[in-house]
Specification:
This protein is an alpha/beta fold. 42% of the residues lie in helices and 19% in strands.
Length: 123
């Protein structure tokens, strides 16, 4: 991604959602929940039904992101991280590329909302 594309993405407006806002969409399959934290952070658990795709890969080679995005067309992409900052960056990058995306906040918000937490498979 070029520096110009990155700056353009950062001025892209995206919605900020709470876990309650996202719950029905994720449960219905119209939205995908994505944990954009780094793999070492996933060991504490991830929100159930979340796909683990690090922000570093979205900004880099897209080894994991490219095949995921090819299959995700037509669904809203809801990103979360530890506190919401990286989730916002990821959602803005995705929105700038034409995907419907939103910032779903931080992992602690999902835990506090009672969303089930699972341990992801080893990466």
């Amino acid at each position: 991604m070029s520096l110009l594309s990155f700056f353009k993405a950062m001025i892209t407006s995206i919605p900020r959602y709470t876990p309650a806002d996202c719950s029905a969409r994720v449960s219905a399959g119209t939205a995908l929940l994505i944990d954009v934290r780094e793999p070492k952070e996933w060991v504490e658990g991830v929100a159930q039904n979340a796909v683990c795709l690090p922000l570093s890969d979205l900004n880099g080679p897209r080894t994991l992101w490219r095949p995921f995005l090819e299959k995700a067309s037509g669904r809203e992409l809801l990103t979360y991280c530890a506190v919401g900052g990286r989730a916002g960056i990821a959602a803005k990058l995705l929105a700038a590329e034409g995907f419907q995306a939103g910032n779903a906040g931080g992992f602690a918000e999902w835990v506090a909302a009672g969303w089930p937490v699972v341990v992801p498979p080893a990466t």
